[in-house]
Amino acid sequence: MTKVEKVNLIEPISVSAIRIHKYPFFKNTYVIEFPLDSVPNFVWQTLFEQEMVSSLRFWDRKVVFVGQKLQLITTPENIEEKVEWLKEIIESTNRRVEEYNRNEQLRKKLEEEEKTDLEAIRKIEERLRQTFSVR
After folding, report:
1. CATH of region 15-132
2. Of 16, 101, 119, 127, which sits 20 to 30 A from 70 (CA to CA)?
């Protein structure tokens, strides 16, 4: 498994870099596109979704990733709080990415140790065969 990279909003957030347009499926709902510093991979997006769903404040908003953009689909009320919420979810996702990468590194190390152990066992078995074989 390759290392999962952290993803962040491009800061400082420039209003001129944010695209806002009407969401066609719900009344009084808009899409706010925030630029990201990189394209989030599948693992990052999965961790983000888990963080978002575990948040108690996601019921009036939806987040979609399109390339190097994060689309917040929401109503205009309390937009400042929603942007802060979004930043918090990204930060907690990046902490989980660090934990994920540590766990993957540990898993690889354990797999390598297991391979080394299996090789040692095979060598011991081979020596025992040679020692106890009929001559």
Report:
1. 3.30.1360
2. 101
